[in-house]
Amino acid sequence: MLRILSILFIAASVSANAQITITSADMPSVGSSYVLSTAGVFDGFDFTETGSGYTWNYSTLTSTGQNTRTYSNISSAPFTYQFLFNNPFDQAHLASYTIQTEGFSVAQVSFENFYEFYKNSSTDFRIVGYGATVNSLPVPAQTNPTDVVYSFPLDMGSTNESYSEWPISIPTLGSYLLKQTRSYEVDGYGTLVLPNGTYECLRVKMDIAANDSLYVDALGFGFSLPRNSTEYHWLAAGQGVPVLKAVYNLGFASQVTYLDAPNNVSELTPPTFQVFPTAANEYIQVTNSLNQSMNARVFSISGELVLSETNVRVINTAHLANGMYVVELSTAGHLYRQQIVIAH
User: How far apart are CA 204 and CA 185, in angstroms?
Assistant: First the structure.
């Protein structure tokens, strides 16, 4: 009897630490909606740790805000985007669904009302294009080649590399081109403990090497801004999105989000930051939507710290040499980074 109980205990232990497999069935479907919490990045966690049969205990993550990500039918996107992403004659870019996310800026060009278009198939999960409002006009564009996020099935040791480009014409300004290489390795599996529960997960380490190029017709020239980051995704069966995602820039965690239940915190959106101008000479201004004081650090593109200030609103850049830099702003558990160009 004792031997039988021992065998059952060992079997249960092996099962509890067994590796899972992620397939297309574990990705979102049309109408899926997820509440994601933003966690403070100064809580002292090391999200790079991993292994086989590993236990990641992040049960004390502190939520500082929430947002909802909804995967909608393509027909809900602006009509201008329908031909590119809802066209049965272009199977490569026929999207399964779309999500609307916060936009972004490159130099002084803002990409607003931002849409991402995804295709989920038995072989992979990929981004087939984007749409954004630029200079008050909706501008859709396909990724060519398309951007493969995950290739299925995902198991321990799975790897993949995907190159993609996203070119768009910017009305009354010029053109923008994103070139990106996404490479990943499944480097761990085990048990993930979050504030809202426990999951059996695969851990994916994903390196993203991107380059933003902007060409201004009126000036007759352009410039490019390289940016590299590493993302860590924890994927659980049937959950749709990563139950935990940590983004690292320059070796530091810059964004941490995890799957959560709604209404855990009163603040529903994290603060937004602004660095202006991003092509600077003597100074740059920094603000945030909560009107809080900020600490600022400026790094060279190689990662060297060249400037550090506290309670700052204006950063003097007159003494910095021409070139590209990264401005890091921190306040109340939030961290933001923005690339800038200094040209005297």
Answer: 6
Amino acid at the residue 64: T
> What are the C-alpha distances in Å from 30 to residues 45, 76, 92, 240?
34, 11, 19, 11
How far is the C-alpha of 201 from the C-alpha of 205, rounded, in Å? 13
Please state which of the ranges 78-87, 116-125, 151-160 shows the lowest mean pLDDT.
78-87
Cβ atoms 339, 326 nearer than 8 A? yes
pTM for the model = 0.77
Residue 15 contacts by C-beta under 8 Å, 6 or more apart in sequence? none
Q: Within 10 Å of residue 31's Cβ, how many Cβ atoms?
A: 10
Tens-place pLDDT, residues 24-39:
999 999 989 999 999 8
Buried b (16+ CB within 10 A) or exposed e, 285-320: ebbbeeeeebebbbbeeeeeeebeeeebeebebeeb
